[in-house]
Design a protein that fits this description.
The protein is of the alpha+beta class. It is about 40% helix and about 25% strand. It has one domain. Strands 1, 2, 3, 6, 7, 12 and 13 form a 7-stranded mixed β-sheet that branches. A 6-stranded antiparallel β-sheet has the order 4-11-10-9-8-5.
């Protein structure tokens, strides 16, 4: 497990990265709109296809358009061997800071921030009882190693609304959430959920986030630290400065279908044409080196 100092350094490096990403998008919104349109077009191929392709798309977006950063797609096999949740690794070329990023492509609603692989968070909360409202106890919980997700998980969520074809890149602000939490309450299982949850609330009794059932018997895709993009919006920072519209790129679907039955030589020719197109995008955006 990373030291507290290392976690702070990683959090600072990630915050700097997201600030720079937000600045780039504000200056050149067409670049991210094109990328997101291509990513969500993949849902026409399969309901889960877009999530995996978002990882390589965002990694390439960083490499092509964020000159002070480079990224590496970790891949699923490496991910399963990692101690941390990580889809891509980002390196700041100036400071040499290196940090993991977990990409999430979720609908506008519940959002998983950490899977809590060690089943530590929920049992730790259980030790405190059904309601925790003492400031010292809340602080002690956040300082506990079981809650290291508040310090060293960097989640970059692509939140989408398929009905209206729009996307919002929302980053959960762990620091603000931690500072604002004044009460943690165990609540019963609800609709579509068999297990209880611990919900975190601020001084206005507004929802912050929640920890779902963490026993080994629980589904790994359901337990852990969660939030809700609608209910906890005040604890998110929008990298895209709100919702942006995307559209389906049917040519991309045709390109994929043809590429899957063509040769490597054909792929090489197509790649060169695509590289030329990216160069034109950079030139029109004034990003050419």
């Amino acid at each position: 497990m990373p030291s507290k100092r290392a976690s702070m350094d990683t959090a600072a490096a990630y915050k700097d990265f997201t600030a720079r990403l937000k600045l780039l998008i504000s200056k050149h919104p067409t670049l991210i709109t094109t990328t997101l349109s291509n990513i969500f077009t993949m849902r026409l191929i399969g309901n889960k296809t877009h999530g995996d392709l978002a990882e390589i798309a965002i990694a390439e977006f960083i490499n092509q358009f964020m000159y002070d950063f480079r990224s590496v797609h970790v891949g699923k096999d490496l991910y399963r061997a990692k101690a941390q949740e990580e889809d891509i690794t980002v390196i700041n070329e100036i400071t040499k800071a290196e940090f993991p990023v977990s990409l999430k492509a979720y609908g506008d609603g519940p959002l998983q921030l950490s899977t809590d692989k060690n089943f530590a968070m929920f049992p730790r909360l259980q030790r405190e009882g059904d309601e925790i409202s003492s400031a010292s106890k809340v602080k002690r919980l956040f300082d506990d190693p079981a809650f290291s997700a508040f310090n060293n998980i960097n989640v970059l969520p692509l939140i989408y609304d398929e009905k209206t074809q729009r996307c919002n890149i929302l980053v959960f602000d762990y620091v603000r959430a931690r500072e604002a939490t004044v009460r943690i309450v165990r609540e019963s299982a609800g609709k579509g959920r068999k297990h209880p949850v611990y919900r975190f609330y601020d001084s206005d009794d507004a929802y912050v986030c929640e920890v779902r059932y963490g026993d080994a018997a629980a589904n790994a895709l359901q337990r852990g630290l969660w939030t809700h993009t609608k209910n906890g919006l005040k604890y998110f920072d929008s990298i895209t400065d709100g919702w942006i519209d995307y559209s389906h790129n049917l040519v991309l679907v045709a390109l994929f279908s043809h590429a899957l039955i063509s040769t490597e030589a054909g792929h090489s020719l197509a790649l060169e044409k695509i590289k030329d197109d990216i160069a034109l995008l950079k030139e029109s955006a004034g990003l050419k080196r």
